Amino acid sequence: MIRFLILAGYFELTMYLQLSGKLDQYINVRYSYLAYISMILSFILALVQLYTWMKNIKVHSHLTGKIARLTSPFILVFPVLIGLLVPTVTLDSTTVSAKGYTFPLAAGASKTGVSDDGTTIQYLKPDTSLYFTKSAYQKEMRQELHKYKGKKPVTITTENYMEVMELIYLYPDEFLDRDIQYTGFVYNEPGHDNYQFLFRFGIIHCIADSGVYGLLTTGNQTSYPNNTWLTVKGRLHMEYDKNLEQHLPVLQLAEVHQTKEPNNPYVYRVF
């Protein structure tokens, strides 16, 4: 009976995340089919355990000790309780301040994409090169860049946010002096007077590999507090950042409009 309840709990948890719209705050929506598969499997296995319990069928157990028999159900049910009882918190500028970010190739930054303690480093730009061979990555990026060739204005949306951001940092010359419009939340980094970062948290696969991505902006007459959502439009140019000790693409703002936080503040990398 305990096995049935635990499996039913996993089924209920997955259904709850899906129906409440919170699933996309944990995984890339592209992989939501995996949640459906796990939900179906949990339901089927729960029915099997219910049938086994009702028919009083004896099953072999590898748990021989009393402590193991008592603690194993609590270990299995713990993720279900966390998912159902602990409220979902949206990542914002507080997370950026607490966790920090490191721009690739900045002074003292790891060039492998992994910090000394083994955790993934937060980037200003999405970096998907770890999931390709070098030649395949270059080919993929050139194909994506082809869509944005020319001097036409670039509108960055929720759907292409991470794609365009990665291309801007890889091929900044292709986007210089072009009008760029996008939406993000304000982050005021100490040491960047008269500048504000405009970020969105992005997910490549799941929340574990999430990062904060966006551009440094300048030219705004109003200094907005952290977590203010803005839709901005401006022209891109390169500036040398003394704190990061390298040149960065900077958006010179021409239009700024305060807006509401999107229903889903996260963006996702889609290939």
TrEMBL record:
- Answer whether the UniProt record assigns the keyword GTP-binding to this protein: no
Is Transmembrane helix included in the keywords of this UniProt record?
yes
* Domain of life assignment: Bacteria
Q: Which residues form the DUF1980 domain?
A: 2-101, 131-269
Kindly state which keywords UniProt assigns to this record, in alphabetical order.
Membrane, Transmembrane, Transmembrane helix
Which residue ranges traverse the bilayer?
Answer: 33-53, 74-91
Pfam families attached to this UniProt entry:
DUF1980, DUF1980_C
This one is known as Phosphate ABC transporter substrate-binding protein
Native species: Streptococcus pyogenes serotype M1
